[in-house]
Amino acid sequence: MSVKPRLIAFHLPQFHPIPENDAWWGQGFTEWRTVAAAKPLFKGHSQPNVPADLGFYDLRLPEARNAQALLAKQYGIEGFCYWHYWFNGKLLLETPVQEIISSGEPDMPFCLAWANEPWSRRWHGRPEDILQDQTYGGVEDDRRHFEWLLPALADPRAIRIDGKPVFLVYKAKSLPDCRRTTDLWRELAVKNGLPGLYLLSIETDGTFGWDPRQGGFDAAVEYQPYWLRLNEYLKKNWLLVARNYVQYRGLWVLDYGKLWPHLLSPEVGYPLYRGVCPRWDNTPRKGPKGIVFSNSTSEEYGKWLSHTIQLMQNRPEEHRIVFINAWNEWGEGNYLEPDLKYGHAYLEATRAALTG
Q1: Predicted local confidence at residue 127, as pLDDT
Q2: Which residues, 6 or more positions from 108, have their beta carbon under 8 angstroms from its beta carbon?
Q3: Can you give the pLDDT at residue 20?
Q4: Quick check: is 62 in a domain?
Q5: Model confidence at 205, in pLDDT bands (50, 70, 90)?
Q6: Is residue 1 domain-resident?
Q7: d(CA 97, CA 62)
Q8: CB within 8 A of 199, min separation 6: which ones?
């Protein structure tokens, strides 16, 4: 009997107000404002998407965080990978994670992923307008960063691989001295009583095909949708895509069922944990400059997840891990949480793929 894989879902802590977002986007801003204001851009376009069971939650509330964890565990999600924002000592959106660590609730395994890139108005098509630059402060910054991370890494709920707590970096090659940083973190982990660290590099622009072990990481994570593969798909199917582009007045609309087999990575010469995404529609953020995966049904998502699970079956039990992007990226139309239109369909598909 095969051992079930470990499903880890990326989790966005955007859903609570912070002073910076108040200044940049208006008083009380959270991602919900963007989600609720979305409009359909073509016939059959499902917008706005409205949350069902969990409602328009505020992640400062322990009740909201506990409800998320309970729902995820019911459908086979092992843990959450919370996005973490560190800018040379400055933190953003840190309150939910800090409270999860300090309170010991919810009883849900977790790890952190450092989203080490600038904050800009890129979501709204203005990447040149930098709101919070991503800067690095050398060795001392690496040391301070580890000290902040230590409670999360030492937490009994920390997701582990080979007995070591897991930490992810979004753009590993953007670190000024990647190997220096990872070597220091591993040294500090041992000094603080941890058995080491299991460091993962997320494959994104600039790291496709890069062996993460060169930078001191243990493995890479396939972060879907895999934009390099998507661009290759566009080139191969340019005539169909061009027709759609004209039909939808400049909006990229791509068929999910036809697209997902092309997003898979080939076998590579370094350790790679595979990933899937249930759907995609970032028009709440980008409007007509966005990308929509049409026909992204729960059935097609289930096929992709089942296929990915099969790819992992020959790995050691500890390493049968699939990363799902995402649990709650509502602004990208990329979420497992129930909405009013589909209910629990994507969660049911997750559980069905997991149980075979």
Answers
A1: 60
A2: 69, 72, 73, 79, 80, 157
A3: 95
A4: yes
A5: confident
A6: no
A7: 11
A8: 166, 167, 168, 169, 182, 185, 186, 212, 216, 217, 218
- pLDDT at 123 (0 to 100): 56
Could you tell me how far CA 129 lies from the centroid of its own chain? 23
Nearest residue to 339 via CA among 65, 55, 57 = 55
Backbone angles phi, psi at 95, to 5 degrees: -55, -50
Q: Provide the domain limits for residue 311.
A: 6-355
The pTM of the full predicted model, rounded to 2 decimals, is 0.96
Select from 324, 212, 204, 198 the least CA-distant residue to 271: 212
| 351 occurs within a structural domain | yes
Count the domains in the chain.
1
Question: Domain with 105 in it: what CATH number?
Answer: 3.20.20.80
Whether residue 94 lies inside any domain: the answer is: yes
What are the distances in angstroms from CA 19 to CA 16, 23, 58, 85, 241?
10, 6, 15, 15, 41
